[in-house]
Amino acid sequence: MSATVRPRRSVLYMPGSNARAQEKAKTLPADALILDLEDAVAPDAKAAAREQVCATVRGGGFGSKELVIRINALDTPWGMDDLHAACAVGPDAILVPKVESAWQVTDVERLMAQYRTPERTAIWCMMETPLGILHAEEIARMSRHLACLVMGTSDLTKDLHAQHTALRLPMLTSLGLCVLAARAYDLAILDGVYLDLKDEAGFRAACQQGRELGFDGKTLIHPTQVEPCNEIFAPSPDEVAQAHKIIKAFAAAEKQGKAVVVVDGKMVENLHVENAKHVVTLADAIAKMH
C-alpha cells in the first residue's frame, strides 16, 4: 500500500478510555486521530477502553479525518483481543507498537486477513526501540498494507539512555534512518511527540525541524498543538505560488525541447518539477479536507 498525498500534518493521540475527549475531537482540525489502547490506558481499564474505541469508530462523524487504533503489543495480555476488535470495526489504520522486525508486520497482516479486515484498513508501525530502528528498512518493505511509520521518540530516548535536547541531536540518526526507509518504500512517516505543553516556541521549532528532515507531520498529545502543527507542515502560499511558477516554466521549456529552465535565477530540472507538483497536490488536498 503506497503512500498517497494525504494530509497527515497533525496526528493527535486520544486516550482510548475517554469518550468525552473522543467526541470533542470531531470538532478539532487534526488531520488524523490515534485512539490509543496502549500507553494512555491503565491495565484495569483496557477492556472498557477497547469497547469505547470500537464504539467511536462505528459511530463515525469524523469527516475526512483518519481514524487509527493503536493496539497493545500482541505478546501482552490485551494485544490479540485489541487486534481482533479493531479488525472488526475497520478503522483507517491499526497502529502496532514497538515493531522491531519484519515478521511482526507479517504476523499482523496474516491475522488481519484471518479476521476479514476491510481492505482499506492499513498497518502503521511504531518505531520506538533501538532494534526497531536498526531494522527499519526490512520493516518498511515487508507488507503492501503498510502505509506509515510513526516515531516513538520518548521510548527511544529512554532506551538509548539519551537526553531530550532542543536540537534533538541524540535522535537525528534514528529519525534519518526511518525517513530513508519510509521514502525508499513510498510510505508516510510521522515525527514523535513534544512533551512540554508550555513551551510553544520549542514546539514550533521541533515541528519546523521535523518538516526540514522530511516528515509528513507530527504526532501530538494535546489539542492546543494541532493548529501550529498544521500551519508549519502545510505548504505556505508563497511555496504554492512558486511551485505553480516552476511547473508552468518547465512546461514551456519542454515545448521548446529543453530539459532545464532557469526560474528566479535557479536551475530547474525534472526533479524540481516533481517536488513542485507534490506541493501543489498537498495544498489542494488540505484545502479540500478543511
Structural key phrases:
eight-stranded parallel β-barrel; alpha/beta; 10 strands; 290 residues; TIM Barrel; 12 helices
Structural features, described:
The chain folds into two domains: 10-233, TIM Barrel, CATH 3.20.20; 237-289. Helices cover 47% and strands 16% of the residues. It has twelve helices and ten strands. The protein has helices at 19-24, 46-59, 79-89, 102-114, 130-134, 136-140, 153-160, 172-184, 200-213, 226-233, 237-255, 270-289, and strands at 10-15, 32-36, 66-70, 93-96, 122-127, 146-151, 188-191, 217-220, 261-263, 266-268. The two termini are 25 Å apart. The mean pLDDT is 96.
Biggest sheet layout = 8 strands, parallel, barrel
The sequence of SSEs as H and E is: EHEHEHEHEHHEHHEHEHHEEH
Number of helices: 12
How many distinct domains?
A: 2
Shape: globular
Kindly state the number of beta strands.
Answer: 10
Structural class: alpha/beta
Strand content: 15-25%
